[in-house]
Structure formats: structure tokens, C-alpha cells
Amino acid sequence: QVQLVESGGGLVQPGGSLRLSCAASGITFRWYVMRWYRQAPGKEREFVAEIMSAGGSSNYADSVKGRFSISRDNAKNTVYLQMNSLKPEDTALYHCNAYRIGVGSHWGQGTQVTVSS
């Protein structure tokens, strides 16, 4: 059974930082592209960042470039999202996604990030 479990969300003031984690089980983690998405209330889910299976390449949404950093530890089956200089508009439910061509996607339940003073 595939499980993606996100953690690390919370309430933070504007300008603050958080580090999200997503622990995967039930998949061969190193084969999967790992992505973070987010969904704010009343809005569609949007792509945030991705890191390739080998960990050598990553991509970011324009809205988070220069502030967020994605990384992975294939030995721990975990992907991270370091979020710095947080803004109120970063408030959302953040979901982890594991994708492999020919297999499809697996999703976690999400972790809430709230940026507010």
C-alpha cells in the first residue's frame, strides 16, 4: 500500500520559514519524480516544485522561485520543501505527489501552511 505522509506545516509570520517533509512508503522511491502542489481555499490546486528521480534537476513555479527549495533523500524515502520568505499568499494545503511514467501519481493528504501576522 502506497503512503505519502506530509509533515512540517503550521502557522508562521510573514517573512518566516518552514520546512515540509513527505515520507513515502510502498513505492520504490528513487524511481519517482517527487512534486509539491498546494491548494488555497476557493482556488485550484497549483504546482509548486518538482525534483527528478535522480535528484539532479528541479523546477519551480514562478511564484516561489528564489524562496522555496526542493530536495530529496532517497535513502530515507523522503522529499523536502524548504520555504523561506513566506508570504500570506503562500497560505494553502500543501500536498506531496509521487509520479512515474506508466504508473501514474500517488498523493498525500496534505499539510496546512498558514502565513499570517
Give a brief rundown of this model:
With 117 residues, the chain is an all-beta fold.
Describe the structure.
A hairpin with a 4-residue loop joins β7 (68-73) and β8 (78-83). The chain is mostly beta strands and 117 residues long. It is built from no helices and eleven strands. The model has no long low-confidence stretch (mean pLDDT 96). Strands 2, 4, 5, 6, 9, 10 and 11 form a seven-stranded mixed β-sheet that branches. The protein has a four-stranded antiparallel β-sheet with strand order 1-3-8-7, with no helix packed on it. It is globular.
Give a quick set of tags describing it.
single chain; 117 residues; mainly beta; 4-stranded antiparallel beta sheet; 11 strands; 0% helix
Report the uncertain regions.
none
Helix content: under 10%
User: In one word, what is the shape?
Assistant: globular
Total number of β-strand segments?
11
Summarize the helices and strands and which ones pair or pack:
Layout: E1 3-7, E2 10-12, E3 18-25, E4 33-39, E5 46-51, E6 58-60, E7 68-73, E8 78-83, E9 92-100, E10 104-107, E11 111-115
Parallel strand pairs: 2-11
Antiparallel strand pairs: 1-3, 3-8, 4-5, 4-9, 5-6, 7-8, 9-10, 9-11
